[in-house]
Amino acid sequence: MSAAGASPGRHELLAPADAQRLDLFIAGALDLSRTQSATLIANGQVSVNGHAERASYRPASGDRVLVDIAPPTARPVIAEDIPLSIAFEDDEVLVVDKPAGMVVHPAPGNWSGTLVNALKGRGGELSELGGEDREGIVHRLDKETSGLLLVAKTDRAHRILGAAMAKREIVRRYAALSWGHLDADTLSVDKPIARDPRDRKRMAIVSTGRAARTDFVRLARFDSVDLLRAHLHTGRTHQIRVHLSSVGHPVVGDDTYGGGGGRKLVDLPPKRHFLHAAWLRFRHPASGEQVELKSLLPDDLRRSLASAAGEDAVLADTDPLEYFGFFRDDS
């Protein structure tokens, strides 16, 4: 088997004095789920001091634990005829306005219907730097997050855009609705993020995690929610959602991080959180010219915002993000 978070090959671990049971120890050390580590043990891919042990075995201090992870089984990515909304395209770059509900790349449980399947279905060149299952993908959006996503069509463009992303030269700003009210109109959350050691499907604030910073500006305050503009300085998994949850104001509709209740109060459909990648700005990898793109709120989020604001008549006649100053460049 191959497992997310651990590279294929042999991994040698030395158990500390306070090691948990074997399956939990391996899961924590190799960034796996408990089920994945238990499967490795059951399949004979784990030994302790040269011997097989049960998942419940508690390693002693200094025990030598060997874990063999097989390379992933090749699974071709099928081209599919799935319509996409294209915000920008030329010979080097493609920007997709991704709908909520679409997974970006194939993975267990989502082998079809993804953005990569749709991109391959369009034909044409895509960067191969990310591998066949992530062709062209420069950065990702969560499944239920909509908005602008950058795709590289050539390897050269991918390298340049990837470097710009690492240097924080690509501007990505998101519209978010959060429960409750921030203490001030601006907030910077600078907290490291890693996989939650108690639930491998979630991310969490972890002292040993990777640095992560998000700046928030409150654009409007309603009865039970705030409309925020979120500016990513780093691109950690679930970053905005984790940071807002960490300060007690989770994204509206976010079932994973505490914001899923009360969605009927703001007319938000099931399995949808209020997070939209609305503003993208980057230097073109070939010309060096600045490209700036804006994405209007999708209809479901527009209805939700109008419900939260109680100003249906006003918001029906104008773009709500423009109305609340989302695209004002005051940073």
- Report the order of strands and helices: EHHEEEEHEHEEEEEEHEEHHH
Estimated structural class? alpha+beta
Number of strands: 14
Number of helices: 8
Quick one: overall form? globular
CATH class of the largest domain: Alpha Beta
What does this entry show, briefly?
This protein has 331 residues and is an alpha+beta fold.
Protein architecture, described:
The protein is an alpha+beta fold and 331 residues long. It folds into 3 domains: 9-69, Structural Genomics Hypothetical 15.5 Kd Protein In mrcA-pckA Intergenic Region, Chain A (Roll), CATH 3.10.290; 86-166, Pseudouridine synthase; 171-277 and 301-323, Pseudouridine synthase (2-Layer Sandwich). 20% of the residues lie in helices and 25% in strands. It has 8 helices and 14 strands. The strands form 3 sheets. Strands 4, 5, 6, 7, 8, 11, 12, 13 and 14 form a 9-stranded mixed β-sheet that branches. The chain is globular.
What descriptors fit this protein?
331 residues; Structural Genomics Hypothetical 15.5 Kd Protein In mrcA-pckA Intergenic Region, Chain A; Pseudouridine synthase; 3 domains; 9-stranded mixed sheet; 8 helices; 25% strand; globular
Topology summary:
Blueprint lengths: L8 E6 L7 H9 L3 H9 L3 E3 L15 E6 L16 E4 L3 E6 L16 H8 L23 E7 L2 H12 L4 E9 L6 E5 L2 E3 L7 E3 L7 E9 L3 E8 L6 H8 L28 E9 L6 E5 L4 H11 L2 H5 L3 H4 L8
